[in-house]
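ok posting inputs for the nicotinamide-adenine-dinucleotide job
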Amino acid sequence: MKTLKSFPRRRFLQGGALAASNLFLLKNAVPEPTQVAPSDRVRFGMIGIGMQGSGLLPNAISLPGIECVGAADLYDGRHTLAREITGNANLAVSRNYHDLLNRKDIDCIVAAVPDHWHMRVVVDACNAGKDIYCEKPMSHTISQGFEMVDASKRNNRIVQIGSQRVSSALCEKAFELYKGGAIGDVELVELSMGRNDPNGAWQYPPPPDLSPQNLDWDTWLNDAPKIPFDPLRFARWRCWKEYGTGVAGDLMVHLLSGMQKTLGWNEAPRSATSIGGIFRWKDGRNMPDTLLVLFDYHGIPVYVRLNLGSASPEVARFMGPRGVMETSGEEIRLSPQRGVDTSPSYYSGGFPAKLRHEYVSKWYAEHEVTPGKEPISEDTVFRGNDWDDVRPHLWNFFKAVKSRNPVTEDAVFGNHAAIACHMANEAYFRKGTVYFDEATNTLKS
Ligand SMILES: NC(=O)c1ccc[n+]([C@@H]2O[C@H](COP(=O)([O-])OP(=O)(O)OC[C@H]3O[C@@H](n4cnc5c(N)ncnc54)[C@H](O)[C@@H]3O)[C@@H](O)[C@H]2O)c1
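and the output
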């Protein structure tokens, strides 16, 4: 059984080379459960109670006034799971999510279905008048993302995409720091993560009892090619482009969404160039296990390294003339840089003695450097709740369902992050640079 993510791990620096650190515990914006007036309650239907849905569901119902009143999944074992999580043995369950969309007493939907189902679920929900929280990456293809934006606008429905870190207090802090000029205007962004274990590479164990009797396999396939029932495809769909979006859509999308929020960007990249391959997990997958991507965001280079064959921390590094801001796990580290010379140029070693002495004397006359009084730089570390705690993001959505205020990650924002993922994959498969054409919303080689 999943545990609630409401008490996230806190990680403290072990000793360290920090010149100074600032323990800054940011306040979680989610209120503790209190009495909620009936008019403030939100009733939702849950679609997809698999790995992620089984985490979203308990977190959602732990929020004040939020109630799950129905669940849909194509696999009957997950009907049992939904009833176990909600503690409601009579929870209405169905294989058909339209049963939830047709109910008048349901305000909104939370959906955690595989990527190749996102578009249909979101468009159907919006057309049925339901707001929807849908997992990341928003779409399975570029054209689908635009259909989803359109459905949201046409029906005036709230769509929140599930890259949860954008609602974290730390992401808000990173945005404030950047906006306040902490590193100057960003010149380069580096995003990286690595894993080195079968689970991390998506080799998940299928549910032991899974069979065509308790799973609607044909519907699960959606518009993917029809193939006989395959429990590995059901559990490990991320490995194949017919259902998933690979390391780009599964993992990079979080890094890119965090970057968009931190820098205040809301756009697709102009171009993407990728190289990679299947180096470690030769298990029949067709998505790369290693992918390196170079994006051009209005002229700013964004370099991404994604690797399922060697573990490394997940880090976003923002670099500017006034310093570096690095975000990972539960902290932001700000390392200011003065960007000035602290001694005469070593290039003067190539001057004849007289010229060198004159240059060095002049430099010291113009710069005050007292031995033992050299400037010391100071890093600042801000710590808070886990970036990836889902409760603030769910709360942001449920509040918007009532208030009709905009959410943190609406369909336009989610679409921009998803387009970048599709560009990275396309560049890998086409073995070259792809460009996003805003006039046609398509990719050009
Ligand atoms: N935000 C995050 O940190 C995070 C983490 C993990 C997964 N995810 C996302 O969550 C989504 C689900 O991933 P998962 O790992 O939980 O997958 P999963 O395969 O474990 O669960 C998906 C469930 O959806 C059900 N389903 C599929 N099509 C359906 C349909 N048409 N109607 C009803 N049920 C349907 C399946 O039967 C399955 O039970 C994916 O988009 C994934 O990218 C997000």
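notes: The pocket of nicotinamide-adenine-dinucleotide is lined by residues 47-48, 50-53, 72-75, 78, 97, 112-115, 117, 135-136, 162, 164, 219-220, 250 (CB under 6 Å). The chain is about 30% helix and 20% strand.
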